[in-house]
Task: structure prediction
Amino acid sequence: MKKLLQGILAGYGANKISQKNGCGCIGTIIIFIILFSILGYVFNWFGF
Result:
């Protein structure tokens, strides 16, 4: 469940950031990977 929520939040954030900055497909994927890893640290820090 944690990974599903993490993926949804990272996907939503990557979509919003890429729309605002005009990134292409590769840029969106890179942003998704960065957000996914950051959210993993945040979830572990808060104990989810």
Remarks:
- The first helix runs from residue 2 to 21.
- The two ends are 10 Å apart (CA to CA).
